[in-house]
Amino acid sequence: MSCCHNYYVTAEGGESVFAVDISSISFGHGVLKEAGEHARHLGMSRVALFTDQRLAGLPYVAQVRDALRASGVDVAIYDEVKVEPTDQSFIAAARFAAEGKFDGYVSVGGGSVIDTCKAANLYATWPADFLDYVNAPIGAGKPVPGPLKPHIACPTTCGTGSECTGITIFDLLAMQVKTGIASRRLKPSLALIDPAATYTLPKNVVAASGFDVLSHALESYTARPYTRRAASKSPSLRPMSQGANPWSDLGCVAALKRLGQYLERAVNDASDHEARDEMMYAATLAGIAFGNSGVHVPHGMAYSVAGLVRDFRPEGYPQEEPMVPHGMSVIVNAPSVFRFTASACPERHIHGAACLGAETKGATAADAAEIVSAQLIKMMKATGIPNGVSGVGYGEADVAGLTKGAWAQQRLLTNAPRDISESDLGTLYRGAMRYW
Ligand SMILES: [Fe+2]
Questions:
Q1: What's the predicted TM-score (pTM) here?
Q2: Which residue, 230, 55, 74, is CA-closest to 156?
Q3: For residue 217, which phi and psi values (nearest 5 degrees)?
Q4: pLDDT in tens, 388-424
Q5: From the CA of 46, how far away is ligand 1's center (Å)?
Q6: How far does residue 171's CA lie from ligand 1's centre (Å)?
Q7: How many Å lie between the centroid of ligand 1 and the Cα of residue 111?
Q8: Positive or negative, the Cα torsion across 356, 357, 359, 362?
Q9: How far does the centroid of ligand 1 lie from the alpha carbon of residue 327, in Å?
Q10: Would you tell me how many other CB atoms lie within 10 Å of the CB of residue 423?
Q11: Are 356 and 293 in contact (CB under 8 A)?
Q12: Centroid of ligand 1 to alpha carbon of 98 (angstroms)
Protein backbone atom coordinates (compact mmCIF):
# COMPACT_ATOMS: atom_id res chain seq x y z
CA MET A 1 0.00 0.00 0.00
CA SER A 2 2.99 2.29 -0.14
CA CYS A 3 1.98 3.67 -3.53
CA CYS A 4 -0.89 5.84 -2.34
CA HIS A 5 -0.71 5.92 1.47
CA ASN A 6 2.40 7.70 2.71
CA TYR A 7 1.70 6.46 6.24
CA TYR A 8 2.09 2.87 5.08
CA VAL A 9 5.58 2.61 3.64
CA THR A 10 6.99 -0.82 4.44
CA ALA A 11 10.32 -0.56 6.21
CA GLU A 12 13.16 -3.10 5.88
CA GLY A 13 11.96 -6.24 7.70
CA GLY A 14 8.60 -4.56 8.41
CA GLU A 15 5.15 -6.05 7.90
CA SER A 16 3.74 -5.91 4.40
CA VAL A 17 0.36 -7.56 5.10
CA PHE A 18 -2.62 -6.41 7.17
CA ALA A 19 -5.51 -8.69 8.15
CA VAL A 20 -9.22 -7.85 8.53
CA ASP A 21 -11.49 -9.84 10.83
CA ILE A 22 -15.03 -8.68 11.37
CA SER A 23 -18.10 -10.16 13.01
CA SER A 24 -21.32 -10.56 11.13
CA ILE A 25 -23.51 -7.61 12.05
CA SER A 26 -27.24 -6.94 11.76
CA PHE A 27 -28.06 -3.34 12.63
CA GLY A 28 -31.39 -1.58 12.99
CA HIS A 29 -34.64 -1.12 14.85
CA GLY A 30 -36.34 -4.35 15.88
CA VAL A 31 -33.34 -6.56 15.14
CA LEU A 32 -33.39 -8.22 18.58
CA LYS A 33 -36.56 -10.06 17.55
CA GLU A 34 -34.43 -11.95 15.01
CA ALA A 35 -32.28 -13.55 17.73
CA GLY A 36 -34.08 -16.92 17.64
CA GLU A 37 -33.67 -17.56 13.95
CA HIS A 38 -30.01 -16.56 14.07
CA ALA A 39 -29.42 -18.82 17.07
CA ARG A 40 -30.90 -21.83 15.25
CA HIS A 41 -28.83 -21.00 12.17
CA LEU A 42 -25.69 -21.02 14.35
CA GLY A 43 -26.64 -24.46 15.67
CA MET A 44 -27.72 -23.36 19.14
CA SER A 45 -30.29 -25.44 21.01
CA ARG A 46 -29.47 -24.58 24.65
CA VAL A 47 -28.01 -21.15 25.38
CA ALA A 48 -26.76 -19.16 28.33
CA LEU A 49 -28.12 -15.61 28.13
CA PHE A 50 -25.82 -13.18 29.96
CA THR A 51 -27.00 -9.84 31.30
CA ASP A 52 -26.80 -7.73 34.47
CA GLN A 53 -29.39 -7.15 37.17
CA ARG A 54 -30.41 -3.68 35.99
CA LEU A 55 -30.91 -4.84 32.41
CA ALA A 56 -32.67 -8.05 33.43
CA GLY A 57 -35.78 -5.98 34.21
CA LEU A 58 -35.76 -4.02 30.94
CA PRO A 59 -37.54 -5.09 27.74
CA TYR A 60 -34.45 -5.97 25.65
CA VAL A 61 -33.63 -9.10 27.62
CA ALA A 62 -37.25 -10.26 27.47
CA GLN A 63 -37.36 -9.58 23.72
CA VAL A 64 -34.27 -11.70 23.09
CA ARG A 65 -35.33 -14.44 25.50
CA ASP A 66 -38.79 -14.66 23.91
CA ALA A 67 -37.35 -14.72 20.39
CA LEU A 68 -35.02 -17.56 21.35
CA ARG A 69 -37.77 -19.58 23.01
CA ALA A 70 -40.15 -19.00 20.09
CA SER A 71 -37.54 -20.67 17.89
CA GLY A 72 -37.33 -23.65 20.21
CA VAL A 73 -34.06 -22.68 21.88
CA ASP A 74 -33.74 -23.51 25.57
CA VAL A 75 -32.55 -20.42 27.55
CA ALA A 76 -30.86 -20.16 30.96
CA ILE A 77 -30.41 -16.56 32.15
CA TYR A 78 -27.29 -15.44 34.05
CA ASP A 79 -27.92 -11.94 35.44
CA GLU A 80 -25.04 -11.78 37.92
CA VAL A 81 -22.68 -9.93 35.57
CA LYS A 82 -20.75 -7.24 37.44
CA VAL A 83 -20.49 -3.78 35.88
CA GLU A 84 -16.71 -3.36 35.44
CA PRO A 85 -16.06 -7.10 35.82
CA THR A 86 -13.25 -8.66 37.83
CA ASP A 87 -11.32 -11.92 37.66
CA GLN A 88 -13.66 -13.22 40.36
CA SER A 89 -16.82 -12.26 38.50
CA PHE A 90 -15.41 -13.86 35.32
CA ILE A 91 -14.64 -17.07 37.21
CA ALA A 92 -18.17 -17.18 38.68
CA ALA A 93 -19.67 -16.69 35.20
CA ALA A 94 -17.41 -19.38 33.74
CA ARG A 95 -18.54 -21.81 36.45
CA PHE A 96 -22.17 -21.19 35.47
CA ALA A 97 -21.26 -21.73 31.82
CA ALA A 98 -19.36 -24.95 32.48
CA GLU A 99 -22.09 -26.43 34.67
CA GLY A 100 -24.85 -25.64 32.16
CA LYS A 101 -23.29 -27.53 29.24
CA PHE A 102 -24.50 -24.93 26.74
CA ASP A 103 -24.01 -25.12 22.99
CA GLY A 104 -24.29 -21.37 22.49
CA TYR A 105 -24.12 -17.99 24.23
CA VAL A 106 -26.09 -14.77 23.96
CA SER A 107 -25.18 -11.51 25.68
CA VAL A 108 -27.54 -8.56 26.14
CA GLY A 109 -25.89 -5.53 27.71
CA GLY A 110 -22.95 -3.16 27.66
CA GLY A 111 -19.28 -4.01 27.37
CA SER A 112 -19.18 -5.61 30.82
CA VAL A 113 -21.87 -8.11 29.87
CA ILE A 114 -20.45 -8.95 26.44
CA ASP A 115 -16.91 -9.27 27.88
CA THR A 116 -18.11 -11.54 30.68
CA CYS A 117 -19.92 -13.74 28.17
CA LYS A 118 -16.76 -14.01 26.05
CA ALA A 119 -14.72 -15.07 29.09
CA ALA A 120 -17.35 -17.56 30.29
CA ASN A 121 -17.51 -19.12 26.82
CA LEU A 122 -13.70 -19.32 26.71
CA TYR A 123 -13.13 -20.99 30.10
CA ALA A 124 -16.12 -23.32 29.76
CA THR A 125 -14.99 -24.44 26.29
CA TRP A 126 -11.23 -24.56 26.93
CA PRO A 127 -10.71 -24.87 30.71
CA ALA A 128 -7.38 -23.55 31.98
CA ASP A 129 -5.80 -21.74 34.90
CA PHE A 130 -7.33 -18.29 34.89
CA LEU A 131 -4.10 -16.41 34.10
CA ASP A 132 -3.14 -18.71 31.20
CA TYR A 133 -5.00 -16.71 28.53
CA VAL A 134 -4.55 -13.29 30.17
CA ASN A 135 -2.32 -10.83 28.30
CA ALA A 136 1.38 -11.03 29.11
CA PRO A 137 3.23 -9.90 31.14
CA ILE A 138 0.42 -10.00 33.74
CA GLY A 139 -0.76 -13.42 32.52
CA ALA A 140 0.87 -16.12 30.39
CA GLY A 141 -0.73 -14.87 27.16
CA LYS A 142 -1.26 -18.41 25.87
CA PRO A 143 -3.20 -18.72 22.59
CA VAL A 144 -6.79 -19.96 22.73
CA PRO A 145 -6.50 -23.58 21.46
CA GLY A 146 -9.53 -23.66 19.15
CA PRO A 147 -12.93 -22.20 18.28
CA LEU A 148 -15.37 -21.23 21.03
CA LYS A 149 -19.11 -21.94 21.03
CA PRO A 150 -21.15 -19.49 18.92
CA HIS A 151 -21.95 -16.18 20.65
CA ILE A 152 -24.60 -13.63 19.64
CA ALA A 153 -23.86 -10.21 21.21
CA CYS A 154 -26.63 -7.63 21.59
CA PRO A 155 -25.14 -4.32 22.83
CA THR A 156 -27.34 -1.92 24.79
CA THR A 157 -24.84 0.95 25.07
CA CYS A 158 -23.19 2.87 22.27
CA GLY A 159 -19.63 2.51 23.42
CA THR A 160 -17.31 -0.37 23.85
CA GLY A 161 -17.61 -1.99 20.43
CA SER A 162 -17.05 -5.25 22.31
CA GLU A 163 -19.60 -6.95 20.03
CA CYS A 164 -17.11 -6.49 17.17
CA THR A 165 -13.81 -7.32 18.90
CA GLY A 166 -11.89 -10.29 20.22
CA ILE A 167 -10.98 -8.47 23.43
CA THR A 168 -12.31 -8.87 26.97
CA ILE A 169 -11.32 -6.56 29.84
CA PHE A 170 -11.51 -7.04 33.61
CA ASP A 171 -10.02 -5.89 36.94
CA LEU A 172 -7.41 -8.25 38.33
CA LEU A 173 -8.21 -7.65 41.98
CA ALA A 174 -4.98 -8.94 43.51
CA MET A 175 -2.88 -6.52 41.46
CA GLN A 176 -5.43 -3.67 41.42
CA VAL A 177 -5.05 -3.39 37.67
CA LYS A 178 -7.26 -3.72 34.62
CA THR A 179 -6.05 -6.16 32.03
CA GLY A 180 -7.61 -8.43 29.44
CA ILE A 181 -7.58 -11.36 27.07
CA ALA A 182 -7.14 -10.78 23.34
CA SER A 183 -7.80 -13.46 20.74
CA ARG A 184 -9.66 -13.59 17.43
CA ARG A 185 -11.41 -16.63 18.89
CA LEU A 186 -13.25 -14.37 21.36
CA LYS A 187 -14.95 -12.31 18.68
CA PRO A 188 -18.74 -12.89 18.82
CA SER A 189 -20.12 -14.83 15.87
CA LEU A 190 -22.84 -12.26 15.31
CA ALA A 191 -23.79 -8.83 16.65
CA LEU A 192 -27.45 -7.77 16.74
CA ILE A 193 -27.44 -4.00 17.23
CA ASP A 194 -30.68 -2.13 17.92
CA PRO A 195 -29.98 1.58 18.44
CA ALA A 196 -33.29 2.01 20.28
CA ALA A 197 -31.65 0.24 23.24
CA THR A 198 -29.78 3.51 23.94
CA TYR A 199 -32.88 5.71 24.26
CA THR A 200 -33.27 5.19 27.99
CA LEU A 201 -29.59 5.57 28.90
CA PRO A 202 -28.75 8.33 31.40
CA LYS A 203 -26.81 11.35 30.11
CA ASN A 204 -23.57 10.40 31.85
CA VAL A 205 -23.62 6.89 30.42
CA VAL A 206 -24.03 8.24 26.89
CA ALA A 207 -21.19 10.73 27.52
CA ALA A 208 -18.77 8.12 28.89
CA SER A 209 -19.56 5.52 26.27
CA GLY A 210 -19.54 8.13 23.51
CA PHE A 211 -16.05 9.27 24.44
CA ASP A 212 -14.94 5.65 24.55
CA VAL A 213 -16.06 5.42 20.91
CA LEU A 214 -14.30 8.68 20.11
CA SER A 215 -11.06 7.48 21.63
CA HIS A 216 -11.29 4.10 19.89
CA ALA A 217 -11.52 5.90 16.57
CA LEU A 218 -8.86 8.55 17.22
CA GLU A 219 -6.38 6.13 18.82
CA SER A 220 -6.88 3.62 16.04
CA TYR A 221 -6.45 6.32 13.38
CA THR A 222 -3.23 7.63 14.96
CA ALA A 223 -1.81 4.22 15.93
CA ARG A 224 1.61 3.14 14.71
CA PRO A 225 1.24 2.01 11.07
CA TYR A 226 1.15 -1.78 10.62
CA THR A 227 4.16 -1.47 8.30
CA ARG A 228 6.38 -0.43 11.23
CA ARG A 229 5.85 -3.71 13.09
CA ALA A 230 8.30 -6.50 12.41
CA ALA A 231 6.86 -8.87 9.78
CA SER A 232 4.90 -11.74 11.37
CA LYS A 233 6.54 -15.15 10.90
CA SER A 234 3.15 -16.76 10.25
CA PRO A 235 -0.41 -15.49 9.75
CA SER A 236 -1.51 -16.95 13.07
CA LEU A 237 1.08 -14.82 14.88
CA ARG A 238 -0.12 -11.55 13.33
CA PRO A 239 -1.60 -9.63 16.27
CA MET A 240 -5.09 -8.10 16.25
CA SER A 241 -3.39 -4.93 17.51
CA GLN A 242 -1.56 -4.75 14.19
CA GLY A 243 -1.52 -0.95 14.06
CA ALA A 244 -3.21 1.56 11.81
CA ASN A 245 -4.11 0.21 8.38
CA PRO A 246 -6.17 1.36 5.40
CA TRP A 247 -9.19 -0.78 6.36
CA SER A 248 -9.41 0.56 9.91
CA ASP A 249 -8.92 4.13 8.66
CA LEU A 250 -12.28 3.91 6.85
CA GLY A 251 -14.21 3.11 10.02
CA CYS A 252 -12.27 5.62 12.12
CA VAL A 253 -12.94 8.56 9.82
CA ALA A 254 -16.62 7.68 9.41
CA ALA A 255 -17.01 7.30 13.19
CA LEU A 256 -15.17 10.55 14.01
CA LYS A 257 -17.41 12.53 11.64
CA ARG A 258 -20.52 11.13 13.35
CA LEU A 259 -19.09 11.89 16.79
CA GLY A 260 -18.39 15.47 15.75
CA GLN A 261 -21.92 15.88 14.53
CA TYR A 262 -23.95 13.91 17.07
CA LEU A 263 -22.11 13.29 20.38
CA GLU A 264 -23.15 16.51 22.14
CA ARG A 265 -26.73 16.17 20.90
CA ALA A 266 -26.96 12.51 21.98
CA VAL A 267 -25.68 13.35 25.48
CA ASN A 268 -27.64 16.50 26.14
CA ASP A 269 -31.04 15.51 24.70
CA ALA A 270 -32.33 11.98 25.38
CA SER A 271 -35.26 12.61 23.03
CA ASP A 272 -32.91 13.17 20.07
CA HIS A 273 -33.26 9.68 18.65
CA GLU A 274 -31.49 10.53 15.42
CA ALA A 275 -28.37 11.46 17.42
CA ARG A 276 -28.53 8.32 19.56
CA ASP A 277 -29.01 6.12 16.47
CA GLU A 278 -25.97 7.72 14.85
CA MET A 279 -23.91 7.24 18.03
CA MET A 280 -24.73 3.54 18.02
CA TYR A 281 -23.62 3.29 14.40
CA ALA A 282 -20.44 5.25 15.21
CA ALA A 283 -19.71 2.75 18.00
CA THR A 284 -20.10 -0.11 15.53
CA LEU A 285 -17.83 1.54 12.96
CA ALA A 286 -15.18 2.33 15.57
CA GLY A 287 -15.47 -1.20 16.96
CA ILE A 288 -14.74 -2.88 13.65
CA ALA A 289 -11.93 -0.36 13.10
CA PHE A 290 -10.06 -0.70 16.39
CA GLY A 291 -10.71 -4.44 16.53
CA ASN A 292 -8.39 -4.66 13.53
CA SER A 293 -5.80 -2.07 14.54
CA GLY A 294 -5.74 -1.66 18.32
CA VAL A 295 -5.89 1.39 20.55
CA HIS A 296 -2.93 2.94 22.33
CA VAL A 297 -1.90 5.26 25.16
CA PRO A 298 -5.22 6.82 26.37
CA HIS A 299 -6.56 3.27 26.87
CA GLY A 300 -3.28 2.10 28.41
CA MET A 301 -3.41 4.95 30.95
CA ALA A 302 -7.12 4.35 31.58
CA TYR A 303 -6.52 0.95 33.09
CA SER A 304 -4.92 2.39 36.21
CA VAL A 305 -7.26 5.41 36.33
CA ALA A 306 -10.13 2.92 36.64
CA GLY A 307 -8.27 0.30 38.66
CA LEU A 308 -7.03 2.60 41.48
CA VAL A 309 -10.31 4.45 42.02
CA ARG A 310 -10.90 5.61 45.60
CA ASP A 311 -14.20 7.40 46.03
CA PHE A 312 -15.49 8.59 42.64
CA ARG A 313 -19.16 7.75 42.09
CA PRO A 314 -20.57 9.19 38.87
CA GLU A 315 -24.25 9.94 38.44
CA GLY A 316 -26.18 7.44 36.32
CA TYR A 317 -24.10 4.43 37.43
CA PRO A 318 -24.57 1.97 40.33
CA GLN A 319 -23.60 3.79 43.55
CA GLU A 320 -22.65 0.83 45.79
CA GLU A 321 -18.98 0.91 44.85
CA PRO A 322 -16.74 3.71 43.61
CA MET A 323 -15.92 3.48 39.90
CA VAL A 324 -14.59 5.45 36.97
CA PRO A 325 -16.61 4.34 33.94
CA HIS A 326 -14.38 3.00 31.19
CA GLY A 327 -14.96 5.78 28.64
CA MET A 328 -14.41 8.46 31.29
CA SER A 329 -11.18 6.81 32.44
CA VAL A 330 -9.98 6.91 28.83
CA ILE A 331 -10.96 10.41 27.75
CA VAL A 332 -9.52 12.21 30.80
CA ASN A 333 -6.07 11.17 29.49
CA ALA A 334 -6.72 11.82 25.82
CA PRO A 335 -5.93 15.55 25.34
CA SER A 336 -2.60 15.12 27.15
CA VAL A 337 -1.71 12.03 25.10
CA PHE A 338 -2.64 13.44 21.70
CA ARG A 339 -0.60 16.57 22.47
CA PHE A 340 2.34 14.18 22.91
CA THR A 341 1.71 11.95 19.89
CA ALA A 342 0.81 14.74 17.43
CA SER A 343 4.39 15.22 16.24
CA ALA A 344 4.57 11.58 15.04
CA CYS A 345 1.78 11.98 12.46
CA PRO A 346 0.50 15.58 12.60
CA GLU A 347 -1.64 15.26 9.47
CA ARG A 348 -3.66 12.42 11.08
CA HIS A 349 -4.17 14.41 14.29
CA ILE A 350 -5.32 17.45 12.32
CA HIS A 351 -7.64 15.40 10.11
CA GLY A 352 -9.06 13.60 13.16
CA ALA A 353 -9.79 16.95 14.82
CA ALA A 354 -11.35 18.27 11.61
CA CYS A 355 -13.67 15.25 11.46
CA LEU A 356 -14.73 16.11 15.03
CA GLY A 357 -15.58 19.65 13.94
CA ALA A 358 -12.41 21.65 14.62
CA GLU A 359 -11.47 24.55 12.37
CA THR A 360 -8.25 23.41 10.69
CA LYS A 361 -7.98 25.70 7.67
CA GLY A 362 -4.37 26.73 7.16
CA ALA A 363 -3.16 24.51 10.01
CA THR A 364 0.45 23.38 9.87
CA ALA A 365 2.13 20.39 11.50
CA ALA A 366 3.21 22.62 14.38
CA ASP A 367 -0.47 23.33 15.22
CA ALA A 368 -1.57 19.68 15.40
CA ALA A 369 -1.07 19.16 19.14
CA GLU A 370 -3.02 22.26 20.11
CA ILE A 371 -5.82 21.74 17.57
CA VAL A 372 -6.60 18.16 18.57
CA SER A 373 -6.36 18.71 22.34
CA ALA A 374 -8.45 21.90 22.21
CA GLN A 375 -11.20 20.12 20.25
CA LEU A 376 -11.34 17.25 22.74
CA ILE A 377 -11.43 19.60 25.73
CA LYS A 378 -14.22 21.62 24.13
CA MET A 379 -16.32 18.47 23.63
CA MET A 380 -15.58 17.21 27.15
CA LYS A 381 -16.73 20.50 28.68
CA ALA A 382 -19.90 20.51 26.58
CA THR A 383 -20.94 17.06 27.80
CA GLY A 384 -20.15 17.16 31.54
CA ILE A 385 -17.00 15.01 31.51
CA PRO A 386 -14.82 15.52 34.62
CA ASN A 387 -11.93 17.96 34.35
CA GLY A 388 -9.05 15.56 33.71
CA VAL A 389 -7.56 12.96 36.02
CA SER A 390 -8.02 15.25 39.05
CA GLY A 391 -11.72 15.36 38.22
CA VAL A 392 -12.03 11.65 39.01
CA GLY A 393 -10.16 11.92 42.32
CA TYR A 394 -6.42 11.80 41.67
CA GLY A 395 -3.60 14.22 42.51
CA GLU A 396 0.15 14.61 42.12
CA ALA A 397 0.77 12.02 44.86
CA ASP A 398 -0.93 9.38 42.71
CA VAL A 399 1.21 9.83 39.60
CA ALA A 400 3.73 7.10 40.53
CA GLY A 401 1.00 4.51 41.14
CA LEU A 402 -0.92 5.45 38.01
CA THR A 403 2.27 5.26 35.95
CA LYS A 404 3.21 1.85 37.32
CA GLY A 405 -0.16 0.39 36.30
CA ALA A 406 -0.07 1.94 32.85
CA TRP A 407 3.51 0.82 32.20
CA ALA A 408 2.30 -2.79 32.43
CA GLN A 409 0.06 -2.21 29.38
CA GLN A 410 2.85 -2.75 26.86
CA ARG A 411 0.50 -4.23 24.23
CA LEU A 412 -1.17 -0.82 24.05
CA LEU A 413 1.85 1.41 24.60
CA THR A 414 3.80 -0.16 21.74
CA ASN A 415 0.88 0.58 19.42
CA ALA A 416 1.43 4.33 19.87
CA PRO A 417 2.91 6.27 16.95
CA ARG A 418 5.81 7.44 19.19
CA ASP A 419 8.01 5.42 21.52
CA ILE A 420 7.03 6.12 25.09
CA SER A 421 9.08 5.69 28.28
CA GLU A 422 7.91 5.20 31.85
CA SER A 423 8.88 8.76 32.70
CA ASP A 424 6.93 10.02 29.65
CA LEU A 425 3.86 8.34 31.15
CA GLY A 426 4.34 10.29 34.39
CA THR A 427 4.56 13.50 32.38
CA LEU A 428 1.37 12.58 30.50
CA TYR A 429 -0.55 11.99 33.76
CA ARG A 430 0.66 15.36 35.07
CA GLY A 431 -0.47 16.96 31.81
CA ALA A 432 -3.86 15.26 32.19
CA MET A 433 -4.58 16.49 35.75
CA ARG A 434 -6.64 19.55 34.76
CA TYR A 435 -7.61 21.01 31.41
CA TRP A 436 -9.64 24.04 32.36
FE1 LIG B 1 -12.54 1.40 25.17
A1: 0.92
A2: 55
A3: -70, -45
A4: 999 999 999 999 999 998 998 888 999 999 999 999 9
A5: 31
A6: 14
A7: 9
A8: positive
A9: 6
A10: 10
A11: no
A12: 28
